[in-house]
Amino acid sequence: GNTAVDLGVELLEIINPEDSILFPEGNLARNIIAQMLDKKAECVCFEVYKNSLPKTINTDYLNKITSNKYDAIIVTSPSSFNNLLLALEGKIAPKELRLFSIGTTTTTEIEIQGIQALSTAKMSNAIGISEAIIEHFTTK
């Protein structure tokens, strides 16, 4: 599988009650896997990085988006989507964005903002997103 739940299910099959599992993660982590495994073994989550908007953003690329000179944007995480919205705030209506999503978690975040992704990858990897893009443009 490709989701946190899929990985959690697979790990539940191989961990033991005496195991102690550490989860280094970012400040935006949802802790899904740790919550699943914590029912069977000790799981400790700890923050090792912060996900934040960079100090500078290439304005040439933002201008391409705001002037509608792009085909689509590939969004690879909920935080990349949210940071994109922050970078574009006041410059373009979010609903005007044409987005491909790497997976269901990212698509859910996109939908919370009232936007419909052009397509969502069935597998959350390069092959999955490539197939979603090809399918979108060949069945259009």
What is the count of helical runs? 6
Radius of gyration: 18 Å
Strand content: 15-25%
Helix content: 40-55%
Unreliable sequence segments: none
Strand adjacency order, main sheet? 3-4-5
Q: Whole-Å distance between the termini?
A: 28 Å
What string, H for helix and E for strand, traces the elements in order?
HEHEHEHEHEH
- Overall spatial form: globular
The description of the largest β-sheet is:
3 strands, parallel
Question: Count the strands?
Answer: 5
Mean pLDDT: 90
Based on the structure, what is the oligomeric state of the protein chains?
single chain
Q: Class by helix and strand content?
A: alpha/beta
Structure description:
The chain has helices spanning 4-12, 32-37, 59-66, 78-88, 104-112, 126-138, and strands at residues 20-26, 42-49, 73-75, 99-101, 119-120. It has 140 residues and is of the alpha/beta class. The strands form two sheets. Strands 3-4-5 form a three-stranded parallel beta sheet, sandwiched between helices. A two-stranded parallel sheet has the order 1-2. Helix 5 (104-112) links the parallel strand 4 and strand 5 (119-120). Helix 4 (78-88) packs parallel to helix 5 (104-112). The chain starts with a helix and ends with a helix.
